[in-house]
Amino acid sequence: MTQRKSTRDEHLLTPQRQHRGEAWPTDSWRVLRIQSEFVKGFDALGDLGPAVTIFGSARTKPDDPQYQMTVETARLIGEAGFNIITGGGPGIMEAGNKGASEAKVQSIGLNIELPFEQHINPYCTETIDFHYFFVRKTMLVRYAQAFVIFPGGFGTLDELMESLTLIQTGKIHNFPVILVGSEFWGGLVEWLRSSVLVHGKISPEDMDLFYLVDSPEEVRDIIVHALRGDSDQEEREEKARQETAKVYAPYPFS
């Protein structure tokens, strides 16, 4: 059985009353640790240049067609002038870094501490280790111009929904979010349309905040056209932001 270790994320999120008398840093001191992790990430990635973050399942094997498609997608994105960022682990992350290495662009792996042993994949040219998920997630967005999202599980869905929320609320702009694999993602898209939209939890414009594609070439072209300014990406985002603003208009931030 894999040995489990405690992590700093766990320490942060566990209610203090559950530590049963252990010596435990106060939250104010913990802020310094978190700050140092942000500084480390900003220093390491500050001069990265244009980049795209690729997400997907760590469970995808090298003989899976999705793995091979990810390699090809990352290679095409790299050849178009973008560095590649992943979570640095196995599966789709490894495939993304492999494609970056084939394109001879920077292949970044942002590793996260987990309660079991994990390893950085061999295709990363630079790796940064993070203890806190929320710091790592900031870096995955901060230094990317687009998200490419292959089939994955809870972590992939987390990143997808966070990116859509950031666009919807105007926190990031001109930011393509591309779902690869209509067979896998089609059910989610249909649920958003037939349930979330029908019940008024999102606006029709929000359904235009992402793309659903099936080929590496489509992924590359969407990113390139959006960042050249010759697509309707910003117009799609602005319409969704306007609808969101109507909801919050009676509750101004002060």
TrEMBL record:
Comp. bias intervals (Basic and acidic residues): 1-12, 230-244
The EC number(s) this enzyme carries: 3.2.2.n1
GO molecular function: hydrolase activity
SUPFAM superfamilies assigned: MCP/YpsA-like
Keywords linked to the UniProt accession: Cytokinin biosynthesis, Hydrolase
GO BP terms: cytokinin biosynthetic process
Region (Disordered), start-end ranges: 1-21, 230-254
Keyword Nucleus: no
InterPro entries in alphabetical order: LOG, LOG_fam, LOG_family_nucleotidases
Entries under Pfam families matching the protein: Lysine_decarbox
A single cellular component GO annotation: cytosol
Family note: Belongs to the LOG family.
Stated name of the protein: Cytokinin riboside 5'-monophosphate phosphoribohydrolase
